[in-house]
Amino acid sequence: MISYEKFGLKEVINASGRMTILGVSKVSEKVLEAQRFGGEHFFEMSDLMVQTGKFLANLLETEDAQIVSSASAGIAQSVAAVIGEGDIYHVYHPYTTRITKREIIIPKGHNVDYGTPVEVMIQQGGGTVVEAGYANMCSAEHLEMMITAETAAILYIKSHHTVQKSMLSVEEAVGVARKYDLPLIVDVAAEEDLFKYTQAGADLVIYSGAKAIEGPSAGLIIGKQQYVEWVRLQSKGIGRSMKIGKDNVLGFTQAVEDYLAHGSESGKAMKQRLAPFISAVNQIPALEAKIVQDGAGRDIYRASVKVLGEKSARQIITELKEENPAIYTREYQANNGIIEFDVRSVNGLEMEKIIRRLQEIMKKRG
Fold first, then answer.
1. How far is CA 201 from CA 80, 154, 297, in A?
2. In whole angstroms, how large is the CA radius of gyration of the chain?
3. How many distinct helices (H) and strands (E) make up the chain?
4. What's the CA gap between 297 and 282, in Å, rounded?
5. Exposure letters 102-112 (e unless 16+ CB within 10 A, then b)
6. Mind listing the pLDDT tens digit for each residue in 317-360?
């Protein structure tokens, strides 16, 4: 019997969001069923990858698709793909000096740490990082001025982690890529729209399998067939150390199918679920709660709790994690005295546990 107790683990209430450090998402019974089928049967793996890719490409109205182990692996393999351009020597010698066209241009404000720096994945793929613009601004012109004969691709990161202020749009990045005949890789790991970015003209678009899609640990690369085929070739190269199992391939494919059929929880529904939580938190002395929208403009709403008393936001965040169950929150604004609660993976009973824990913490002296 599997349990938290068997391994000496604490239960976790995930009010942080779809975060890798907590295992990202819960999966549905249908996804578990697909994973079980994968686990109980054998396949010609190369054929499995091609056929699931075709199936997903058809669903997503794009030329081709490749399932990988994670969005991070998707960045590394996409970078390797556009550098090698299908050359088999490069696949076996990804860091060869024979190939010098390795520069990957990225807006400076997109070179962030999301658990590891974006530049690490670029370098793992054999790319040389070239930052364009500044931490608080990057325009199409800033991208253009960094293009050289050694430029292999442009990489754009669409994420709440990145700088939002004064940044060029994906469409503007597409314009630069087309003008200079360069591939554009767009990482949209946590985004919910599976059509928007390929339709905007991006050549390779990368998604996390376990975030908005709520699948098992996986990543998805979709886009132009030639580029996706080059990515698929990386399974014989750097992709070998990033391979994904047959169970997760089928589980993820099922998750995409379900996601397209049913979507994810709407912002309106989140606000309705949040209302009683906000009301209860506002009854706790020294806490002031309100509903806020996701900083990157997604249809995601969270509880924003301002700490007004003797305790600091960081103290409360730490104390929430200490007991069993451990309660994880969003910590990005702790330095401003704010704790955010993402309820997408939190049920009503867990919300009650969070409220009780906050009441206990706030009763104690700082």
1. 20, 13, 21
2. 22
3. 13, 12
4. 25
5. bbbbbbbbbbb
6. 999 999 888 999 998 888 999 999 988 888 889 999 999 999 99
